[in-house]
Amino acid sequence: MPGHHTERSRRSIERKGDLRERAILDTCEALLADKGYSAMTVGDIAQGAGITRGALYFYFGSKQEVVAALVARTVEHLWERSRTTAQADEPRQAIAEAMRRTVELWSEHGLVMRTAIDLSLTVPEAGELWSHTADLFIEAITAVLERAGLPAGTGPEHAPAMARALCWMIERTFYHASQESPEKLREASATCEHIWLTSAGLTS
Amino acid sequence: MPGHHTERSRRSIERKGDLRERAILDTCEALLADKGYSAMTVGDIAQGAGITRGALYFYFGSKQEVVAALVARTVEHLWERSRTTAQADEPRQAIAEAMRRTVELWSEHGLVMRTAIDLSLTVPEAGELWSHTADLFIEAITAVLERAGLPAGTGPEHAPAMARALCWMIERTFYHASQESPEKLREASATCEHIWLTSAGLTS
DNA sequence: ATAAAAATCTGCACCGTGTAGACTTTCTGG
DNA sequence: CCAGAAAGTCTACACGGTGCAGATTTTTAT
C-alpha cells in the first residue's frame, strides 16, 4: 500500500500539464527563431503545442508571459553554467575570462538574450527577471573593480556605480553586435574589455 | 493675379492637415505621458485630435507610426538646439558640456526618449531614426576622443569603436536613471563622464 | 469503485488594430 | 462658378490577443 502510494506520487509528479508547458516553450522557442516575436501568433504557439488558444491561456496569462517563461528557462541554464566557472583572482584575468564567457553566451543565445531585453522594457515580469540577472553581473564587475583598487563607496565614481554603467555598456553593445556577426561580437568584446580595463585603472 | 496667387500660397503653407497632424502628435504626447503606450488606443488619439479613427489612418499608417513621428519631432528640436551649442575645443570641456546637455535632454524629454528606445527595438522606422540619432552622438564622441589623442583607425580599441560603446553606455544608463529621479540622473552623468574621461586617457 | 475535487480543455465573445471601399465635404485651379 | 483633387467620414470586416463559462478529463479520497 505505501509502495503503491509512492508509485502513484512518482507518476503524479510529472503531470500532463508539465509536458504541455514544455511543449509550449519549445514551440515558442522555435517560432521565435523562425518568424520573430510579432509575427508569431498565440494560435501558432498553441497549434505547435497541440492545444487550442484557449488552453494556452490556462498555462500562461499572455503571449508575453510565454516568452518571459522561455527567457527564464534559458537564463536559468546560463546561471548554472556560470556558477561552475571558477573566478580568477587576478583582475586582468578575471576581466578577460568574463568577457570570454559573455561572448560565448551571446553567440549561442543571442536571440533569446535580445528578446529578453526587448521584453524587459515593456513586460514588468521580464523586467524584474532581467534586472535581477543584470544585478548578478554588476556585483561581479564591482568585485573585480574593487580588487583592482577602486573605492567601494556609493559615490558616482566608486566601484558600484562604475560597474553599473559598464554592465549597461556591455549589454547594449553586445545586443547590437550579436545582430551583426560573430566577427562584430569579438570586436565589440575587445572594445568593452579595453574600456573596462581602463576604468579599473589597469592601463595596458 | 500673381499677388493673389501668392496670398493663397501663403495661406496654403499652413494647411489644415498640418494643424491636424500637430494636434494628433500633441494629443499623442499627452496620452503617452498620461496612460502609457499600450493603454493608449488609436481611438483615444483620434478623439483627442478631434477626428475619427479612419481619418487618423489617413495621416499615419499605424499607431506606431504616430509615436515614431512624435519621437522624430522631439529629436529634431534637440538637434537644432545641439547645433547652436558651440563645440568646445578642449576635450575635457567638450565632454563636460556634452554630458551637461545630455542630462538636460533626458530631464526634459525622458519619457519620449525612453519611448523612442522601446519602439526602436520593434518598429523598423523608429529603429532607423534612433540609430541615426545615435550615429550623430557617436560621431561627436569620436571627434572628442581623437582630439584627446586616440587613434582614428577601425580597430576595436580605436576611437570609433570606443565611441560606439560609450554611446550605448550613456544611452542605457540614462534610460534607467531617468526612470528613477533627477538625482540619479546627475549621478549617472558623473559616472559616465568619469568613464569617458578615463577612456580618453584624460585621467583626472 | 466511485464521488468529489482538481486539473485541463473547448468554444465563444469581446475589444483594439488595421484595411478597403463608398460617400460627403472642402479646397483649389482655371 | 465648375470640375476635379484633397481631406475627411462611415461602414463593414478580417485578424490577433484575451477573458470566461462551462464541459471534459484526470487525480484524489474514501
Written account of the structure:
The structure is a homodimer of 204-residue chains. By secondary structure, chain A is mainly alpha-helical. Chain A contains nine helices and no strands. In chain A, α6 crosses α8 and α7 packs across α8. The N terminus of chain A is likely disordered. At the A-B interface, α8 and α9 of A face α8 and α9 of B. The structure holds a DNA duplex (30 and 30 nucleotides).
Oligomer: homodimer
> Which percent range fits the helix content of chain A?
over 70%
Query: Roughly what is the average pLDDT of chain A, rounded to an integer?
Result: 88
Distance between the termini of chain A: 71 Å
Please provide a brief summary of the model:
The structure is a homodimer of 204-residue chains. By secondary structure, the first copy, chain A, is mainly alpha-helical.
Q: What topology does this entry show?
A:
Two copies of one chain form a homodimer.
Chain A: H1 2-13, H2 16-35, H3 42-49, H4 53-59, H5 63-84, H6 91-120, H7 124-147, H8 159-180, H9 182-199
Helix pairs in contact in A: 2-3, 2-5, 5-6, 5-7, 6-7, 6-8, 6-9, 7-8, 8-9
Chain A binds a DNA duplex (30 and 30 nucleotides) through helix 2 and helix 4.
Task: Quickly list its features.
homodimer; 204 residues; mainly alpha; 9 helices; 80% helix; elongated; DNA-binding
